[in-house]
TrEMBL record:
This is Osmotically inducible protein OsmC. Gene3D superfamilies: 3.30.300.20. It comes from Chryseobacterium fistulae. It holds the Pfam family OsmC.
Amino acid sequence: MAITVKATLGKTKYYTEVVAGDNHLITDEPIDKGGQNKGFNPFEILATSLASCTAATLRMYIDRKEWNIDNIHVEVELENFPLTKKAIFKRDISFEGDVDEEQMKRLRSIADACPVHKILINEIEIETKLS
């Protein structure tokens, strides 16, 4: 399944309009980096992808099992180390509802089955074409 996202950046520094199908969002850089902080920065968007995909994957599984879990909280911290070419995602998942130890173990493996998680732990290639 291929998806297409289009980003457009005009003359306003770093204020970028992003479109995917019928959905729109704004990205920007923080003020200390010359932006206006009017949207998520690119690193926040990357962490958001993992957090939101994890939550949705867990919700699908929890609903299928009909477990009594009201809310899923996923916090992702991203640390980037460009000099060593390493990035570390720290993911903290918590639940509101009735979750026993066996369910918690299963939910851990379901979180790791999130499609974005799978992409991030695989080899990644980026092909660039200028036109």
